[in-house]
Design brief:
heterodimer, A: 560 residues, alpha/beta, eight-stranded mixed beta barrel, five-stranded parallel sheet, 21 helices, 20 strands, B: 113 residues, mainly alpha, 0% strand
Chain lengths: 560, 113
């Protein structure tokens, strides 16, 4: 608040002179121009037009007798316009009776004709302007009762004025919040949380002894800073980290998320600047290492795209825009490879964006729980297809389906699968479950318990992406599984790098040790296939045999 | 050309008029000069002749305001007087007052010769 608190004194306020006599207009204008910017109107109607055009007028000097629309009518009209009714009016008159009537109609003061000395006129104008602005300020400065920082409306009002007065000063818009603040509230109690907010706001306020700008608490632990442009914010972050502490709780070391929208003097809407800073800051959610994020347009577009996908999901399910693809899995233990099962994969054929990779939408849906809806859809589609094969082709081919930890941990999961099996007239052994190794990372026991029960019912359990996650050999001993799927990254490189080859060998031996089978994913060449056969891998899937096909194409090729 | 001196001699309270112009003489004289080809006096005379007292009041009131602000004291006095009668819409013979205004205005315009 170094300079910013004083800049408003340097802005020339506009005074609207409503007077039909040219000479009077000129006389007043000449006096007013010494301290204000005069704007002229020849009658009440013109004055209303100027006011409605959005010019910010600080005071109106109003003659009473004018053609077209006189001063009284003008006062009546302006009273009815909420955005304009608070502009102070000083009436120009020579009649005592008019003075009283004008005051009754809401005029704040009057100037007699012939005019008083210029000093008196200026003093009366200044007093009325100040009175009005103080009233307005008091209404807006209602400060945040907890931190005594400016409220949001006052903060933005100030910025608007600052921008008008200093269009070329380079400023940044910052979003700041405390990482895991709700956790702090829960662990230490709300009172400590509040104390922390106060400590942070003191630190932020202190910044403006050094930098130019203003700070506001927007809500909860979210603070906005409008600050002179900095090359980087590491120093600022260090400072608020150092200063935001509670002597009675030295174990409490809060960390912060800072979203930066730099050079916000270039953007037209300051609200947009802070929205963008906010977006950048929120991208740091869940990050333990990063604390400062700059907004960039590409990031925003990506976020918009993701939001759009989430919004479109329900409609996509109804319209069956999600297509289940099947990739064959071959048993390679005999002389000739034999098709023994398939993996269900999903693609999204979006009406606007076209083909969308599951690599884009699956993590998105996993993040917000929507994945369950999609997975349920896939279970139904696949089970129905297996039933159809049985009835139509008298063929039996199990299909594996990827399940996420959200599915597994949801209360109705097992009943849901049972129902799907029953409803489609198929058997539990027709449906395999693929669970990624990383899904076990948390809630290992809960997930494994579900897997044990499903396995007991006859489903086959495959551990997907094996070797890429966190599982240790010790956790493998407690997990239930029938198959280890060797991640394609190892297969792709196994003929190029000995290390990868050794990993593949080790995974196969581990699987053997646990009496499980192995499936190699992403097999693309004959050499890879032959090598895997030689190493004792049981099954393979990949382009070498076939890519994932839409279900109808799969039927055409493998069922008829 | 009208001058400060001529106005002073005519009876104008020049100091008061000047101070309203922030003591800018040329600005003051420019505003005064704009009164020389003003048709408001004729407007007042016409309104009186038509016996339209409301119109006459508005004209007299406007003249009074301007003369007052520029401190053209002789004209301010007579227009103030007639304005008050006209405000009351008093039925009376306005001609002597109008003739006085006309005569003073003629003298005032002559200051510009």
């Amino acid at each position: 608040m170094k300079n910013i608190s004083h800049f408003s004194e340097h802005i020339k306020r506009k005074v609207l002179i409503v007077e039909d006599e040219f000479i009077n207009q000129q006389l007043l204008g000449n006096i007013i121009a010494t301290a204000y910017e005069p704007v002229y109107a020849n009658n009440g109607k013109e004055a209303l037009e100027i006011l409605k055009s959005g010019q910010h007028i600080s005071l109106i000097l109003l003659d009473l007798m004018m053609p077209v629309m006189d001063g009284y009518q003008f006062m009546n009209e302006i009273k009815e316009i909420p955005s304009l009714s608070s502009i102070p009016i000083i009436v120009l008159t020579s009649e005592k009776s008019a003075e009283i009537k004008s005051l009754q109609m809401g005029a704040q003061d009057f100037i007699v004709k012939p005019y008083d000395m210029p000093e008196i006129i200026l003093a009366r104008v200044a007093r009325s302007v100040q009175l009005e602005e103080e009233t307005e300020m008091i209404a807006k400065t209602a400060r945040d009762p907890l931190t005594h920082l400016f409220t949001k409306s006052y903060f933005f009002e100030y910025i608007e004025e600052f921008r008008t007065a200093n269009p070329d000063v380079i400023m940044d818009a910052l979003f700041i919040d405390i990482k895991h603040f709700s956790l702090i509230n829960e662990m230490y109690g709300r009172k400590v949380g509040d104390e922390l907010l106060v400590a942070l706001s003191k630190s932020l306020k202190g910044l403006f002894n050094k930098y130019e700008g203003i700070v506001s608490r927007i809500q909860g632990d979210i603070f906005y800073l409008y600050i002179s442009h900095q090359k980087n914010y590491e120093k600022l972050l260090k400072r608020i980290k150092r200063e935001t502490f509670l002597p009675e709780h030295h174990d409490l070391h809060p960390d912060f998320k800072i979203g930066v929208f730099p050079n916000c003097h270039q953007i037209e809407s300051i609200d947009d600047a802070f929205d963008n800073a906010c977006r950048a800051g929120k991208l740091l959610r869940g990050s333990y290492t990063e604390s400062i994020k700059y907004y960039d347009e590409e990031m925003y577009q990506k976020e918009l795209y993701h939001e759009k996908l989430i919004l479109d999901m329900d409609k996509a399910l109804v319209e069956k825009q999600f297509k289940v693809y099947l990739q064959p899995k071959y048993d390679i233990t005999g002389d000739e490879p034999v098709l023994t099962s398939a993996e269900a994969l999903v693609r999204w054929i979006h009406p606007v964006y076209g083909f969308i990779s599951p690599g884009v939408f699956i993590p998105l849906f996993e993040n917000n729980g929507l994945i369950q809806k999609l997975d349920n859809y896939i279970w139904n589609e696949v089970a129905e297809r297996i039933g159809y094969w049985k009835k139509t082709f008298h063929k039996h081919l199990p299909v594996s389906i990827n399940v996420s930890r959200i599915d597994v941990l949801s209360p109705g999961f097992e009943d849901f699968i049972e129902e799907v099996v029953k409803h489609n007239g198929i058997e539990t052994k027709d449906l395999f479950l693929e669970v990624t190794e990383s899904a076990y990372a948390s809630d290992e026991k809960e997930i494994n318990d579900v897997m044990i029960r499903l396995q007991n019912k006859g489903h086959l359990i495959e551990i997907d992406d094996f070797g890429t996650g966190y599982s240790s050999l010790s956790s493998l001993t407690s997990l239930t599984f029938d198959v280890l799927k060797i991640d394609m990254s190892f297969i792709r490189n196994m003929l190029k790098s000995d290390k990868n080859l050794q990993v593949v060998q080790i995974i196969i031996s581990i699987a053997n040790m646990f009496g499980a089978r192995t499936i190699a994913e992403g097999v693309e060449t004959k050499e890879q296939y032959l090598k895997l056969k030689e190493l004792g891998c049981h099954n393979i899937q990949g382009y070498y045999f076939d890519k994932a096909l839409p279900m109808d194409e799969f039927d055409e090729k493998y069922m008829k | 050309m009208v001058t400060i001196e001529k106005l002073r001699n005519f009876g104008c309270n020049v100091d008061e008029g000047l101070s309203r112009c922030l003591n800018n003489e040329s600005f003051y004289l420019r505003l005064v000069s704009s009164l020389f080809d003003d048709n408001k006096v004729q407007f007042l005379i016409d309104a009186i002749n038509e016996n339209d007292l409301q119109k006459a009041f508005e004209a007299a009131h406007a003249l009074k305001g301007v003369y007052g602000n520029l401190a053209i004291t002789p004209l301010f006095k007579v227009t103030s007087e007639i304005t008050e009668y006209l405000r009351e819409k008093k039925e009376m013979d306005y001609r002597p007052m109008v003739e006085k205004i006309q005569e003073l205005y003629r003298q005032f315009v002559a200051l510009n010769d």
